[in-house]
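From the shared-data thread, chain only:
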Amino acid sequence: MAVVTEHRVSRDDVIWGFGPELEPVLEVEAGAVVTFETNDCFTGQIASEEDLVTAIDFARVNSATGPVAVKGAEPGDSLVVELLDVRPGPRGFATIIPEFGQLVADVDSPVTFVFEVEVRAPLTRLFRVEDGMIRMNDRVSFPARPMVGVVGVATDGEEITNGWAGRHGGNLDNHLHGRGARIYFPVRQPGGMFAVGDMHAAMGDGEICGTGVEIAGEVDVRFDLVKRKQGTWPVTELEHAWVTHATSGGDVREALQLASEEAARALVDQWGFSKEEAFVFLSVACDLNICQACQPSPFSAIARVAIPKTSATPRPFA
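Structure, as C-alpha cells:
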C-alpha cells in the first residue's frame, strides 16, 4: 500500500550535527507523515569508481535532512519515529578508506565499488540491485536491506557531529532501522528536532570497512509521542522485539556493558523485574549485538540488546 505523504523535506535542508539550538525547517503535529529526501553519506561527492574517498571534503560527510519539530514534544517525553518506508535511489557505492577497518592492513586502499539499481553501461566491479538482491559479482549476491544510519534529535548539551552516535541517536548505524521500525528518541529540546540521513541499501553489523552500500534515497516517517517516558538512549520497537542501545567513544567492551545496563534498567523500571531476574532474563532470552565496531576509526562503538516481546515485556515502555 502506498504511503500518503503530507509533507516533504528536501535533501537541500540538512544539518551536519545535532546540538541544543537547532531550528526546524518544518513543524508538524503528532501523527503527521513526512517524506525526507536524503543524500548519500558523502553528499554526492562520489559518482564513479574513479572518485576516491581520499579526494573528498570530509566536512560534507553524513548530512542529515531536517530537522522537523513535532508539536507537543517536551523534554522528558519520547518522540516516536516510525519508518514507514526506506527507498534507496538508483546508484550507491562502498569504499575502502585508508586507516579504516579491521582488515585495512591486508588490502589496497583507497578503493571505490559502485552499486547500480538499473544497469546502464558496464562498470568495473559493478554492484547491481535487482529484485531485492545486490549482485556483487558473477559469484556473489546477497539480499538488499535498506536502512538509515543517522537518526537523531537535538541534544541537551554540546553539538555532536553526524559521524558520531550518542544519547540523542545520531550515527547509530543499526541495520534494524529499516521499514517498519519504530524508534523512541528521548526528547531533550522542545519539538524534539528530528533529522535523518546516511541511507544504506545494505550494511552488516559492525560495518567493518567503514561503509555500507552508501546511497541517496527517500524515507517516509510517521511521528508520534509518548509523554513523560524515555530511555537514556533511543529504543527501537520491531514486530517481535524491542531494542535498547548504548554508545561509547570507541571502546566496544564499554558499549556492550552500557547496552546491557540500559536493557536491565528498562526491565526493572518499566516491567517490575528484580535486578537478579533482569540479569538472568537477559542471558537466557535476549540478544546482545554490535551495530558499529569499525576499528580503528573515529566512529563510536555502538551496541544493542534485543528483548523479545513476551507477556512480561510487551513493548519498550509500560
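The CA atoms of residues 209 and 282 lie 30 Å apart.
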